[in-house]
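Chapter review: from sequence to fold.
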Amino acid sequence: MYMSVYKYIDSNMFIIVGQKEAFVVDPHKNEEALEVLKGVDKVTLLLTHEHADHISGVWWFKEHFDCTLVCSDACNTNISNPHFIRPLLLSLTIKEKDVKNGTNVLAEFKKDFVAQTYCADTTYSDTFSLTWQGHSIGFKLIPGHSVGSSLITFDRKYVFTGDSLLKDYPVVVSFPQGDKKTFLEQTIPFLERDLSPNVIILPGHGEPFLLSEIMSDGKIHVGFR
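The C-alpha cell string follows.
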C-alpha cells in the first residue's frame, strides 16, 4: 500500500495496486504516483467524502488512467455542484498556515488547484460492497463530518475513515453540513458495533493506527471541533 500526503494541507491518499488495476482512496495530484501505478490500465477512485482536499486529484487521475469513480449519493450531489467544489475553506486554512509560518503556499495552491465538478460512476445511499481482485471492499455512509462521509473497509482489516475518525486531530463537525449530534448518535455507535478493535485505521489526516488506540471499555474516544 502506498500512502501520499497532499503537500498543501496534509491530507492522505492511499493506493493499492493489483494486476493491471489499482484503487485509489481520496486522490490528489502526485507525480510519484505515476511510477507507483506503472503498468496499471484501470483505476478505481474511492472517495471518503466530498471536501476539496480529498477530491482534488480526480481530474488528474482521469487524465492519466481509465477511471471509475465511487462515492455516496450525498457526496456525489456535492461534487457535481459547481458552488460546492470551490476550495474556500481549504484556501482559508492554507492562508492561516501561511500567516503563522511566514510562507506563501496559497499562491502555489491557487495555480495548481483545479475546481472541477464530477459525476460518480457508482453511488450508494447507505451501504455498498464490491469484490476487487479477490478482495472484499465495503462502503458505509457515516455522516457527521459531512453529509457524504463514508467508511471504506478493505477485507475487514484496513479501514479508510477520511476525516470521520482520526487519532492526532479532532473530528471537525463545525463545517457547513457537519452535524455533531448525528455523529454521536449514529456514526460512533455504528463504528463501535461494527469494527474490531484490531482493524488498522487509515485516516484522512495523520498516521495509520489501530482502532484500539482510541478505545477503552469498548468505547471510541475522539475530540471535536
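Two observations follow directly from the output. Helices lie at 31-36, 52-55, 58-64, 73-79, 88-101, 105-112, 180-194. The mean pLDDT is 95.
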